[in-house]
């Protein structure tokens, strides 16, 4: 599975069908009063960022999606039943957010309908060749995935002769990267069940909005005396002399944002990963820590940096019921990796391993709760358009169903937008280690991002020759 822009997919020719909440569902939503559910911490910062971007006439890449193949012509009625069951299963899909002029802090209100009121309509969009299918879906999905006063998601199907493709897109308020995997697993299982091929029983699930209230209530116990506050403060102080974000020049002036393009890099083969993991163990490091260490060496050797800094997402799906929740269920850990002029790969890797161990003190405390408590230390405002860069590591070998990804041509998809930084997703699969990233479209950024990951790959391969 690779994250791919819709317009770059190798999509089949076929008849296109769009599934969106029906007029009746929208009428019920329009009449729904604000309920007691506050946005989660992640939803709140995302909604504020969206409004901040609108104020400067810009937009970020704020939505995620997925697509996968099913055999034969599409059974549109079966897809309709499967999609209806899926959106009714997940609480976050039942509603939207609205501006609240009465809230002095600018927090939006949540409005939702009962799941039995959530019905879907099917709109035929005509027959199209593959590239035109991509353009049609990109337009409709971009229009649909607005989480403000709207059901911010859409599902679609493309019916071909020998195989068909199912698509889904949703604003980040409705899910995270793991939700992409979850959506693929559940929609494919529900569709298979509806066409009679294979019965399925969905496990119990906790609603994301219910979880969000519990998270907020739990977070109130953490105050300035919690050790996580000191860890974050140390990260902020380290940042006085070590810059956040992608370590090389992106050719972007202060205040500029450029159109994002997806780029990916093959780093190691599966066999090379296995060898490197064995060496890392001998060196009292871990495989992920060696990967991060290679990036730190690239930052030092190519950009003269004395540290590599980023936010690392960690999942908060710690119960069986939240494991299968559609929602933005992550926290972020601040990681500062110092790298000296003569430090070797495995010396840095051991430091990375220790840093991640120390950062665990931050795991139970939502990062946005930290900002509430010590906001003035960081100079961080929820109302501006800047967010720190993310560097994420995912071991896809551990995910159930990954053996079907290639057969089903499963892809994650992303929206379009602007940014001034590079977000990085490191992915280990049964066949390779690769990096996906969203890169501002400037010649300098494209050249330097390519140089950075090429250098890091060379460093890692060099370690295999020892």
Automatic annotation (TrEMBL):
Question: Which InterPro entries does the entry link to?
Answer: CAT-like_dom_sf, Condensation_dom
Question: Single Gene Ontology BP term?
Answer: lipid biosynthetic process
Domain named Condensation is located at 66-361
- Superkingdom, according to UniProt? Bacteria
MF terms (GO), sorted A to Z: catalytic activity
State what protein this is by name.
Answer: Condensation domain-containing protein
């Amino acid at each position: 599975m690779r994250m791919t822009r819709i317009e770059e997919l190798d999509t089949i020719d076929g008849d296109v069908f769009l599934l969106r909440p029906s007029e009746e569902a929208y009428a019920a939503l329009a009449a729904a009063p604000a309920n007691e559910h506050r946005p989660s911490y992640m939803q709140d910062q995302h909604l504020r960022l969206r409004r901040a971007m609108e104020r400067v006439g810009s937009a970020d890449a704020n939505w995620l999606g997925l697509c996968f193949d099913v055999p034969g012509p599409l059974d549109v009625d079966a897809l309709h039943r499967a999609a209806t069951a899926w959106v009714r299963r997940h609480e976050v899909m039942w509603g939207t957010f609205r501006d609240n002029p009465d809230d002095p802090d600018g927090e939006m209100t949540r409005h939702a309908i009962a799941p039995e009121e959530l019905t879907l309509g099917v709109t035929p969009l005509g027959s199209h060749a593959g590239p035109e299918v991509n353009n049609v879906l990109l337009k409709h999905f971009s229009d649909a995935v607005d989480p403000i006063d709207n059901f911010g998601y859409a599902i679609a199907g493309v019916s071909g002769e020998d195989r068909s493709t199912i698509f889904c897109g949703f604003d980040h308020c409705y899910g995270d990267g793991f939700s992409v995997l979850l959506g693929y697993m559940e929609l494919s299982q529900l569709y298979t069940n509806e066409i009679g091929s294979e019965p399925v029983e969905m496990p119990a699930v906790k609603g994301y909005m219910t979880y969000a209230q519990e998270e907020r209530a739990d977070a109130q116990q953490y105050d300035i005396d919690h050790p996580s506050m000191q860890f974050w403060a140390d990260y902020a102080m380290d940042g006085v002399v070590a810059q956040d974000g992608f370590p090389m020049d992106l050719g972007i002036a202060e205040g500029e944002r450029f159109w994002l393009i997806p780029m990916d890099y093959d780093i190691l083969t599966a066999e090379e990963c296995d060898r490197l993991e064995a060496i890392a163990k001998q060196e009292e490091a871990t495989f992920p820590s060696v990967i991060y260490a290679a990036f730190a060496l690239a930052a030092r050797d190519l950009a003269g940096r004395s540290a590599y800094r980023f936010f690392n997402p960690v999942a908060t799906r710690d119960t069986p019921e939240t494991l299968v929740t559609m929602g933005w269920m992550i926290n972020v850990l601040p990681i500062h990796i110092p790298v000296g002029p003569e430090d070797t790969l495995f010396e840095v890797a051991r430091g990375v391993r220790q840093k991640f161990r120390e950062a665990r003190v931050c795991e139970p405390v939502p990062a946005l709760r930290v900002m509430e408590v010590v906001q003035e230390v960081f100079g961080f405002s929820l109302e501006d358009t800047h967010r720190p860069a993310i560097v994420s590591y995912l071991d896809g070998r551990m995910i159930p169903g990954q053996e079907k990804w290639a057969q089903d041509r499963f892809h994650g998809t992303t929206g379009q937008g602007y940014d001034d930084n590079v977000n990085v997703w490191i992915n280990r699969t049964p066949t390779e280690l690769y990096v996906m990233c969203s890169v501002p479209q400037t010649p300098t950024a494209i050249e330097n991002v390519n140089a950075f990951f090429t250098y890091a790959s060379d460093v890692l391969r060099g370690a295999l020759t020892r």
